[in-house]
């Protein structure tokens, strides 16, 4: 009796548990994006993984990458503005500096390259810092099963700002000149000579030269901010202006521009459609575009700039990122609609990183302390040519709504995830998508097309461009018009654990709809164009106010 009684009560307990279990799973499902929400903390540098990588093109090969960082004997210190008081300095455009400045800049890199590899200030270690935090050398503090990654999220801009700051301080100290500053590669300038590889970096045999670059893209080749863009130089210039306009001017929210949340526990190698963060338009659009355009497509890893592992082995990297950093300030302070605000979530503000200072001491910094460049002593000149993309006026190619014609031609409607299975995009995919039925609430700013749960394998370069009202768009379509929404460029990754990507993509479509005159339509026609050979699928399309 006693036995059967206890068995019975066990059964009862199990039955009672069921609602709790399902409640628990429901919680898990809906809480997924913020599980164990806490800011990213500095990792334990003693726990470093050798990254096992494989080539992305050419003959298959496996590489073991060691980007483990040296651990200085002195203990890490916390950053403070008083201790690291910096001389105010203006970073100049690379195509405008004098021969004297180029000589000094070259000398600075000669000195940095002459340091022994295991010196934290050496060019070698400086490049490894980038590899370490993009190639999963370290696990997140407090979450040893999830790798730490500083790309593809709101960490991208602050981390790279700090990276430049310490790199620049080391160069200053090597030169003994606290007024020395990095230059910026003004690739967004489409008129005055900024949109080619700067002359100072292409002088063969100097410390600023890197032979691992696309030899077809040396000067006078004009930068393609969307690496697959076609046409003559005039066509490229207009397409570049539109990419700048979309990635900076119309990307009005912090999430659209700089990417979404990344906290302790966020796992980029294992995301689902519900919790799939991806970096913002600046990172995935023009920033990645310039990386891919610069790297050598004939090398197995598209070195140096075309893959994160090696990108910072090219001195042009730091000039490229100075421009990215400058554009963050442009976005924040100089847009026609007035100042814009960074994320203000405490998990963003309190996120921490390690860098080495000019004495090779490890310094702990926070995102909060990076947000005001003037406190770091850094500023950029106003470039007249910024106005060309800030005021870019994309021409309208289409005439009225394209929805009825598309429906008559058999194009289906697609809603939010989950749909009936995943949808493979092929090289071009069109669908009719409903716009939100209620009017835009006062609290929201953007009308956002969410491409939900996009999946691909980053074995080779892939891009995804969005169009509205243009059902026949292909990879050859000129992207200077108002029907173009922007492009996400996916840099191939050598890290086998990180090749699979699931992410939600966001474009602000309000400005496009207004220019075309379809802002009051209940449905719009969306076309997604894929370049590259990797199959790409999505799980749904949604238009919402954010
Ligand atoms: Cu850390 Cu331009 O990437």
Provide a concise account of the structure shown.
By secondary structure, the chain is an alpha+beta fold.
Descriptive tags:
546 residues, four-stranded antiparallel sheet, three-stranded mixed sheet, binds CU-O-CU linkage
Dominant shape: globular
Instruction: Give the beta-strand count.
Output: 18
Main β-sheet, spatial strand arrangement: 11-16-13-14
Contiguous runs where pLDDT drops below 50 for at least 5 residues: 1-35
> Helix coverage percent of residues?
25-40%
Sheet with the most strands, sense and barrel status: 4 strands, antiparallel
Structural class: alpha+beta
First and last CA, distance: 62 Å
Task: Report the β-strand fraction as a percent range.
Answer: 15-25%
What small molecules are bound in this structure? CU-O-CU linkage
Structural summary, described in words:
With 546 residues, the protein is an alpha+beta fold. Helix content is 29%, strand content 17%. It is built from 13 helices and 18 strands. It has helices spanning 2-31, 99-114, 123-134, 156-175, 233-249, 254-258, 281-294, 308-311, 316-333, 346-349, 386-390, 403-408, 510-516; strands at residues 51-54, 62-65, 77-78, 89-90, 139-140, 143-147, 352-356, 362-366, 378-379, 423-424, 428-434, 447-457, 462-468, 484-490, 500-508, 523-531, 537-538, 540-545. The strands form seven sheets. The chain has a four-stranded antiparallel beta sheet. It has a three-stranded mixed beta sheet with strand order 3-8-7, covered by helices on one side. Strands 15-12-18 form a three-stranded antiparallel beta sheet. Helix 2 (99-114) packs across helix 4 (156-175), helix 4 packs across helix 9 (316-333) and helix 5 runs antiparallel to helix 7 (281-294). The longest helix is centred in the N-terminal third of the chain and has 30 residues, at 2-31. The chain is globular and about 70 Å long. Residues 1-35 have low confidence and may be disordered. The structure holds CU-O-CU linkage. The site of CU-O-CU linkage (C2O) has 9 residues, from helix 3, helix 7 and helix 8.
């Amino acid at each position: 009796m006693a036995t059967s009684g206890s068995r019975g009560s066990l059964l009862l307990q199990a039955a009672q548990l069921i609602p709790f279990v399902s409640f628990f799973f429901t919680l898990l499902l809906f809480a997924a994006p913020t599980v164990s929400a806490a800011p990213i903390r500095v990792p334990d540098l003693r726990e470093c993984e050798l990254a096992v990588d494989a080539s992305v093109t050419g003959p298959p090969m496996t590489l073991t990458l060691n980007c483990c960082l040296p651990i200085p004997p002195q203990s890490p210190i916390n950053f403070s503005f008083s201790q690291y008081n910096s001389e105010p300095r203006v970073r100049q455009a690379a195509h405008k500096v004098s021969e004297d400045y180029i000589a000094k800049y070259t000398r600075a890199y000669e000195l940095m390259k002459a340091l022994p590899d295991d010196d934290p200030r050496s060019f070698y270690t400086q490049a490894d810092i980038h590899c370490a935090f993009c190639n999963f050398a370290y696990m997140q503090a407090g979450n040893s099963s999830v790798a730490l990654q500083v790309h593809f999220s709101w960490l991208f801009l602050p981390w790279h700002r700090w990276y430049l700051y310490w790199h620049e301080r080391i160069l200053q100290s090597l030169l003994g000149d606290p007024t020395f500053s990095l230059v910026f590669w003004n690739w967004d300038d489409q008129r005055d000579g900024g949109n080619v590889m700067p002359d100072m970096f292409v002088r063969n045999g100097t410390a600023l030269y890197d032979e691992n670059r696309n030899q077809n893209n040396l000067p006078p080749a004009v930068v393609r901010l969307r690496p697959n863009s076609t046409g003559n130089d005039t066509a490229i210039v207009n397409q570049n202006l539109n990419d700048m306009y979309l990635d900076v001017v119309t990307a009005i929210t912090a999430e659209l521009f700089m990417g979404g949340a990344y906290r302790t526990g966020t796992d980029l190698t294992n995301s689902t459609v519900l919790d799939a963060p991806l970096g913002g338009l600046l990172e995935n659009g023009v920033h990645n575009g310039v990386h891919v355009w610069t790297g050598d497509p004939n090398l197995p890893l598209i070195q140096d700039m075309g893959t994160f592992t090696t990108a910072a082995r090219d001195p042009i990297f730091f000039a490229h990122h100075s421009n990215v950093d400058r554009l963050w300030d442009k976005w924040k302070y100089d847009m026609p609609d007035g100042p814009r605000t960074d994320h203000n979530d405490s998990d963003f503000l309190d996120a921490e990183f390690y860098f080495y200072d000019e004495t090779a001491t490890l310094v702990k910094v926070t995102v909060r302390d990076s947000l005001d460049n003037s406190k770091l002593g850094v500023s950029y000149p106003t470039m007249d040519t910024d106005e060309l993309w800030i005021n870019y006026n994309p021409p309208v190619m289409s005439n009225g709504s394209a929805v009825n014609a598309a429906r008559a031609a058999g194009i289906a409607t697609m809603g939010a995830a989950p749909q009936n299975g995943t949808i493979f995009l092929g090289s071009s995919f069109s669908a009719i998508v409903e716009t939100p039925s209620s009017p835009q609430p006062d609290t929201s700013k953007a009308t956002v097309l969410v491409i939900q749960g996009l999946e691909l394998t980053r074995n080779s370069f892939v891009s995804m461009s969005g169009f509205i009202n243009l059902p026949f768009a292909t990879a050859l379509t000129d992207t200077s018009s108002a029907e173009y929404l922007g492009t996400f460029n996916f840099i191939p990754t050598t890290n086998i654990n990180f090749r699979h990507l699931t992410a939600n993509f966001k474009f602000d479509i309000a400005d496009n709809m207004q220019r075309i005159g379809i802002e009051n339509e209940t449905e719009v026609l969306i076309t997604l164009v894929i370049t590259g050979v990797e199959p790409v699928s999505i799980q749904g399309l949604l238009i919402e106010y954010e």
